[in-house]
Design brief:
Blueprint lengths: L2 E7 L5 H11 L2 E5 H11 L2 H11 L6 H15 L5 E5 L5 H9 L9 E7 L2 H9 L2 E3 L5 E2 L12 E2 L6 H21 L4 E5 L4 H14 L7
The protein binds zinc ion.
Length: 215
């Protein structure tokens, strides 16, 4: 049966890079809740119309709506891939329970969680060195000056140290109940070191679940 992998990682843990590694090397689908919701809004689907105002005011979409969307998306694609990567879902314990209950609990045994572990100081250092393109939003390190699109690189206010520490604290608070809920299905992977090192650890974790690279 197709595995369902919940990807957890604090801001700055390199979760985006890991997700990209999975998409590039494995036969997987990557469902990022943020992107899924924005797609629905664009399509003006029933769900899209329901969440449009919530999203534009920066609010959180209800557990029921997000769970319904994830279930719908998985229904069409579950048997076609080796794994579905869930990113940004579940975000609460309630959503985690809903995920376990989908298809009358038939999915439960195929759900695994990979959590990227990074030391707070390393995250603060990574993020406070980060720059983004003022035109296209692409992320760069502190040594770069211009984006490949020609746009000027700037530091985001969100990336200042005090803001980063607050975001990490909030992430911990929100995520702890989820990692606890999944304690029997949780694989911790260190997110420290180079991209290559992290990718190798993630590969090992997937291999332990019986999922091999396809390219
Ligand atoms: Zn750019």
């Amino acid at each position: 049966m197709t595995a369902i992998i919940v990807l957890l990682g604090a801001p700055g843990s390199g979760k985006g890079t890991v997700a990209q590694h999975l998409v590039d090397n494995y036969e997987v689908l990557h469902f990022s809740t943020g992107n899924l919701l924005r797609d629905e809004v664009k399509k003006e689907s029933d769900i899209g119309l329901k969440v449009k105002d919530v999203l534009s005011s920066g609010g959180l979409v209800s557990d029921d709506i997000v769970s319904e969307l994830v279930e719908q998306k998985m229904k069409d694609s579950l048997e076609e891939v080796d794994a579905v990567i869930l990113d940004g879902y579940p975000r609460t314990r309630t959503q985690a329970i809903k995920l376990d209950d989908m298809k009358s609990g038939a999915l439960r045994s195929s759900i695994h969680v990979i959590e990227l572990d990074v030391n707070e100081e390393e995250v603060v250092e990574r993020i406070s060195k980060r720059q983004v393109c003022s035109v296209c939003g692409k992320t760069y390190g502190y040594l770069d000056t211009v984006c490949s699109c020609g746009g000027k690189l700037i530091k985001r206010k969100d990336d200042e140290e005090s803001v980063v520490r607050k975001r990490l604290e909030k992430y911990e608070e929100e995520t702890l109940p989820i990692s606890e809920y999944y304690s029997d299905r949780l694989i911790r992977v260190s997110g420290e070191g180079t991209r290559r090192e992290v990718a190798q650890r993630v590969d090992e974790a997937l291999r332990s679940l019986g999922i091999e690279k396809r390219r």
